[in-house]
Amino acid sequence: MILSNSGSAGVVGLTSALLLSKDPENAVTVIAKFMPGDYDVEYTSPWAGANVLPMAIEKDSRWERRTWEHLRKLTESEPAAGIHFQNARIYRRDKDVPDQPGSHFYDALFAKEPWYKTMFDQYRELSPEEVLAAHDSGCEFKSLCINTQLFLPWLVSQCLKNGVVFKRAIVEHVADAAKFAGDGHGEQVVVVNATGLGALKLGGVEDKAMVPARGQIVLVRNESPFMVATSGTEDGEAEACYIMTRAAGGGTILGGTYDKGNWNPNPEPNIAMRIMKRALEVCPELTGGKGIEGLDIIRHGVGLRPLRVGGVRIEKEMVSLKEGGGEVAVVHNYGHAGWGYQGSFGCAERVVELVNEIRGKNTAAA
């Protein structure tokens, strides 16, 4: 009875489809312009790191808390999912702390007393000798990093096991997705809108709060002994420094940028040089002291994070059909910016709850 609609079959849409498909009463169809294996600037998920470094403030932490439990268990039990544990080091500069908590997308990550210290194993504050030069403090904890080239197809495979149908199509209006339901969905159709940045122009949604947060990265073969994130750089507010080595030979992501409102799909050479320079300042072990020339580059990439001003949208509504009258039930799940992977299962659980409310079921999310 369920139709899952995703502009691209990204982590948010696929995870929603997977959890919905665990209920045998739900017949799930994923409609997507892009599928795992595709590369396009509109298709953000393949470009992601992807890891778990909490970004939400504590009152909004449900999505990340719940997702951590799912991903931690997958890392321990499902090697084919392409996830491994990796220690993360977070370096803070006092001057980067905003005047108002919650005003920046990564406030929680760089808090000196973070709520997540009880969520991760082996959390500790770094000693002054361990803190990166020009930084004031830092912490370390055991997190995880995902090989997106393995994880996205793994999600598809798990969906297929549960009978999910995949179709390539471009949907111009959110209500049009209901046309793909087919006979197997019965009379009750629910559209799950996981279109990411596509929600900006999707008919029936047209959410003007959606803006791209351009992320440029360099993917290299060199491996880092730990993940790294710093609270700021001297290269401007749109640039950042983070490093993460993907599981199972997926390479190491060197980042990056967080450039709001920038639609440029092409990697910029000057930014790439700054990304590599910052990465080696933080982690010279990447090349064993050989400098930038010691980096073995796989590719340069750009992804447009689906940032929603005001935060993620996870709610239900009735949307009028374009023709013939009537309405279709829609559950929205978009606007995750740079935390789609680390919030995916928690948000999908809420999608299941909302779909069950529409269908009059009292069962909780799986």
From TrEMBL:
Its cofactor is FAD. Belongs to the DAMOX/DASOX family. GO terms for cellular component: cytoplasm. Keywords: FAD, Flavoprotein, Oxidoreductase. GO terms for molecular function: D-amino-acid oxidase activity; FAD binding. Gene3D superfamilies: D-Amino Acid Oxidase, subunit A, domain 2, NAD(P)-binding Rossmann-like Domain. PANTHER family: D-AMINO ACID OXIDASE, D-AMINO ACID OXIDASE (AFU_ORTHOLOGUE AFUA_5G11290). GO terms for biological process: D-amino acid catabolic process. Coiled coil: none annotated. It comes from the Eukaryota. Residues 9-354 form the FAD dependent oxidoreductase domain. D-dopa binds at Y242, R305, G338. FAD binds at T44, S45, V171, T195. This is FAD dependent oxidoreductase domain-containing protein. PROSITE patterns: DAO. InterPro entries: D-amino_acid_oxidase_CS, DAO, FAD-dep_OxRdtase.
